[in-house]
Fold:
Amino acid sequence: MTATTTITTTVLDVGEAAPNSQKPVEHPIMDTLTQSTETVGQPLCESATLRMRHVNVFYAETQAIFDVSLDIGRNEVVAMIGPSGCGKSTFLRCLNRMNDTIEGCRVEGELTLDGEAIYGPKVDVVPLRARVGMVFQKPNPFPKTIYENVAYGPKIHGIASRRADLDEIVETSLQRAGLWNEVKDRLDKPGTGLSGGQQQRLCIARAIAVSPEVILMDEPCSALDPIATARIEELIGELSENYTIAMVTHSMQQAARVSQRTAYFHLGKLVEVNDTEMVFTNPQHPLTEAYITGRFG
Amino acid sequence: MQTSTLFALLLLLTLVAYGSGFSRALGAARKGGGVRNLASLPNYYGMHTALWCGLPALLLLGVWLVCDDSIIRALVLGRIAERPDTLAGQHLLYTQIQNLAAGSLIGQPTPELQAAAAYLLSLRNGGQILQTVLVLILSVGFGSYALLRIRPEFRAREQVEKVLRKLLLACACAAILTTVGILLSVLFESLRFFRQIPVTEFLFGLHWSPQMALRADQVGSSGAFGAVPLFTGTLMVSAIAMLVAVPIGLMSAIYLAEYASRRVRALAKPVLEILAGIPTVVYGFFAALTVAPFVRDTAAAMGIAASSESALAAGLVMGVMIIPFVSSLSDDVINAVPQSLRDGALGLGSTKSETIRKVVFPAALPGIVGGVLLAVSRAIGETMIVVMAAGLAANLTANPLQSVTTVTVQIVTLLVGDQEFDSPKTLAAFALGLMLFLSTLILNFIALHVVKKYREQYD
Structure:
């Protein structure tokens, strides 16, 4: 297969290949491509909320992300797909500096949120994380009541001090997360007593209660059944009217259903970014094509 | 043969039985086409044979050792025409006969006693021989029986596992039976005490002075057995200890679990746990020689009267002793809080301290409470430090600078020296022990329940 000839729209040329510590994977397509860090498609956009340029992430000695550049536009849903261990979660966790909690993790490159640096000696992570909310793979409600779970964020950030304001925030957040009707009569019951899908929507309500600009979702449906998954996907569609969303998913159907753009990661490199429809109907890069047609991954 | 020699011989026989069972199974396998044709692996045949060879003989030996003495005693006493009626008299007589048989009786024995002693010796010798013969017969007999049963289709593993299950059950019962035994022995002595001193006086009396005079006309001839000062003393010393141990232990646990780098943790945790390895007597020295004078001098400098043995000194040192208890248990519990909860809180923009105070600590609280309650029962049971640093005077006081005494200390002083088991002074120790046992039992019970409830939350 003549791989590189099909690449047409190389928007971003990042020059020489980064030093590569990965061992070569035995696959005919990959042999020719593992050295390249070029991204095909449209990784950049005009009015970006999140701007990432030449991001490298290291876990102690091993490099997990190689020279990734990507923009996420306002009120856009970007899906990140790729085989396990390709660095999508690591990349996502750079955006609200959750990688700070991992010992030995180092992030290089320029990352900005609305033009303000995310990394830097003067940046306080606390307001940053209030602006960039996160929903995790496994629903992780606090062992508190449903009300307390949602009210937790507004309380610690001092957004609402009066009980009435807090009540209102809790109600609107739960309504936006599509959980209000199911839990309005049992707000004082523990959040851990809800079903898995309800717990995940509670976590989404908890995240939007602090009015973030961006919501990061790390495989938000991988622990849920198809019905709960459909509910969350519907919710992501509604949320994208007000929020910018970056989500990692293992389900290509999910990426196709909810996102406007899709980014394909492979072995720590961003291989292709394009409109979701384009990625799934007419992938530009042979690795992307191989992945979405199920030849590996 | 001596019982110990017999026991060694029995062990040897069992080993031989294992070997022959094993090789016989191999032999059977060779004839029948390999080990795969055996119902169980060869070592199970060996174990089966060994169990048959050893267990029945061992059981007989055990029963023999338990019953041997009382049977011989009944037979010997049966020979004597004029037996004393009382149990104590019979006991004395039998001891005389035993001493005579051992050749250590002083004085001139009657011919009847001499005959009884000779009879005792002959019974003992005969019994010894009978025991050896029976045990060996049982062992060899059952061993060969098991050996002969070995066939390729015989399921030795199931038999062995059945026996092993019973053995495990017996081991589990041993711990429970010991507890019951302790409880009963304390209970009966306590009942004897309560026959002489009313329960209400013991539980609600405000004065503790267990010394009984020898003659009725002496001063303080009656003694006083009001246990309230002891329990308030215990309460005060334990409370001071917990006031020291809980905050320090908890804070160090939070530091170790949440803030410390891996290197500090690897260094600090073992060092902290060394505290738990110091003998309590050594803590006692420290309390009596260093802390108690310091407390007294400090109080004196501030113009407060303090005795040189004080509840404060004992409580402080006891608190230091309990720190590793609290910190180690809390550290484990805090580490068990899922990382996903911390991520969730941090992802919402909590600071590290908010995450710990508002999410991690409440989630770990039930486990921490369990650990603290276990530490409390440790504090209540502690004796040495209090003996050395808090004194022996049973003062009913709320002033931690005065000397107090605790339940455990009083038990020790009551049982040190001469004891009369018909005097309330000695028996009071058992009543105190019973009360202490009950209160720590209740505490442990609550602690285990809390810990159990916590476990259910995350599994």
Q: What stands out?
A: Chain A touches chain B through 28 residues (CB under 8 Å).
